[in-house]
Amino acid sequence: MTLKNDISEIVLTEEEIVSLAKSLGEQITKDYEGKKPILVALLKGSIMFMTDLIKNIDTHIEIDFMDVSSYVGTQSSGEVKILKDLSSSIEGRHIIIVEDIVETGNTLNSIVDFLQYRKAASVEICTLLDKPVPSRTLDVEVKYIGTKIPDGFVVGYGLDFNEFYRNLPYIGLLKPELYS
């Protein structure tokens, strides 16, 4: 049995994802020319998107990573834990948080507050997927959005269910019977 058998529908093809990363990278290039931003990928889900995104940014950047957790299974616990912090100081620096998907807004809201507390010059968010669902509890401002997607549990291209499916080259809806 292959992973494809667990997917009910492909939401974004590999080609569509590459196109979105190119478009977002070009916009970030324009907005941050001469500013040398730090792109902060939230592990583990955003690593594939970060890789494609930075290939399309044509200005000086740095990258760093944070590992944060707020999910248990398919639901947000509401409690954000920092498992891996940044490697360097961000004081006075422009930060772009790179996220795979925005759902409830809890994790991002906490991370933005945390980075502002550390005196970042600015903090913006770049996400591949925006899922405006009823579970969105906080209004988090996302400057760069790849695409909006409908409600449903998506996996692939870094997104997981219990650490599986990250290796799919596309994003698909996981069959509900696999996580219900």
UniProtKB/TrEMBL annotation:
GO biological process: GMP salvage; guanine salvage; hypoxanthine metabolic process; IMP salvage; purine ribonucleoside salvage
Domain spans labelled Phosphoribosyltransferase: 13-161
Catalytic activity: GMP + diphosphate = guanine + 5-phospho-alpha-D-ribose 1-diphosphate; IMP + diphosphate = hypoxanthine + 5-phospho-alpha-D-ribose 1-diphosphate
Extent of the signal sequence: none
GO molecular function, one term: hypoxanthine phosphoribosyltransferase activity
A Gene Ontology cellular-component term: cytosol
Pfam family, one: Pribosyltran
Keyword Transmembrane helix appears in the UniProt entry: no
Keyword vocabulary terms for this entry: Cytoplasm, Glycosyltransferase, Magnesium, Metal-binding, Nucleotide-binding, Purine salvage, Transferase
Entries under Gene3D superfamilies matching the protein: 3.40.50.2020
Lineage top rank: taxon: Bacteria
Keyword field contains Transcription: no
Pathway involvement of the protein, from the record: Purine metabolism; IMP biosynthesis via salvage pathway; IMP from hypoxanthine: step 1/1; Purine metabolism; GMP biosynthesis via salvage pathway; GMP from guanine: step 1/1
Cofactor(s) listed: Mg(2+)
EC annotation from Swiss-Prot or TrEMBL: 2.4.2.8
Cellular compartments annotated: Cytoplasm
Assigned protein family: Belongs to the purine/pyrimidine phosphoribosyltransferase family.
Function text: Purine salvage pathway enzyme that catalyzes the transfer of the ribosyl-5-phosphate group from 5-phospho-alpha-D-ribose 1-diphosphate (PRPP) to the N9 position of the 6-oxopurines hypoxanthine and guanine to form the corresponding ribonucleotides IMP (inosine 5'-monophosphate) and GMP (guanosine 5'-monophosphate), with the release of PPi.
Designated name of the protein: Hypoxanthine phosphoribosyltransferase
Organism: Phocicoccus pinnipedialis
Biological classification of the source: Bacteria, Bacillati, Bacillota, Bacilli, Bacillales
